[in-house]
Amino acid sequence: PIGWGFLYHLRGKEAKSSVKFFHLADLHIGKNVNGFSMLRDQRHVLEQVLAAAERERPEALLLAGDIYDRPVPSGEAVSLFDWFLTELAALKLPCLAVAGNHDSGVRLSFAGQLLRRNGVYLVGAVQEELLHVPFQRDGMTAEVWLLPFLRPAEVAALFPEEEVHSYDDAVRVVLAHQKLQLDRCNLLVAHQFVTQGGREPERSDSEAISVGGLDNVDSAVFAGFDYVALGHLHGPQSVGEHCHYAGSPLQYSFSELHHRKGITVVQVEAGK
């Protein structure tokens, strides 16, 4: 319903010398639930995100995939996301987003160079070197890396010398080729089905998960990062110590009835 409030999930404590990020995921703009368009509700939620951003002034919005509900979104869905990005730019709030499995990476990357001049970083396809953006405050640097949804075949073509047979292999190979600077906090924005030691997180009926766990990625592959801003699962939850799903901002199935929907606020302090 339109009148529902919006919650915050706070990770870490407020600090004067810190860098604050908003972590959001799985907007699924343009989604229909049982034949009912969610666009009006989605506009309402995005208005609340903008109001929260104006109050709290984060350094950037991290958007972890499934921006649209389908690879070829409707005109109305594209217009809504266009409006949202325009409002973020008016607030001078950078948006760092990756494609999810529901998105078309090629379409999402359109006008990428032009958008970056206005603080909008949309990464639709994986490259040998991931796009990474530094944020600095009081002598501290937080580096945000952008990893779009990976499929093994894409990574095998990009790194033909590597053995890539699974989703776990794909993420491991791509991250192994990145050069992280360990004197700063490194954050990763990603969209995958992440497990921990074979233990699966809570799933919802509205998520697209492969049968038999073929798309599992173990959280151990993200060991070099201080925080991993995940998308793909619609319930906010942590997988391991540093990997966190923000969840979807709206309920998209009856299985999500008791979810605490909202924004995850991430505080990065010196060294943690």
Shape: globular
> Which blocks of ≥5 consecutive residues have pLDDT under 50?
1-8
Query: What's the N-to-C terminus distance?
Result: 38 Å
Q: What portion of the residues fall into strands of 2 or more residues?
A: 25-35%
The sequence of SSEs as H and E is: EEEEHEHEHHEEEHHEEEEEEE
Instruction: Please give the number of β-strands.
Output: 16
Describe this structure in words.
By secondary structure, this protein is an alpha/beta fold. About 20% of the residues lie in helices and about 25% in strands. The protein has 6 helices and 16 strands. It has helices spanning about 40-55, 75-90, 105-110, 110-115, 150-160, 165-175, and strands at about 5-10, 20-25, 30-35, 35, 60-65, 95-100, 120-125, 130-135, 140-145, 185-190, 195, 215-220, 225-230, 235-240, 245, 260-270. The strands form 4 sheets. It has a 6-stranded mixed sheet. A 6-stranded mixed sheet has the order 8-9-10-13-15-14, with no helix packed on it. Strand 8 and strand 9 form a beta hairpin. Helix 1 packs parallel to helix 2 and helix 5 (about 150-160) runs parallel beside helix 6 (about 165-175). The longest helix is centred in the N-terminal third of the chain and has 18 residues, at about 40-55. It is globular, with a radius of gyration of 17 Å. The N and C termini lie far apart (about 40 Å).
Quick tags:
272 residues, alpha/beta, six-stranded mixed sheet, 16 strands, 22% helix, globular
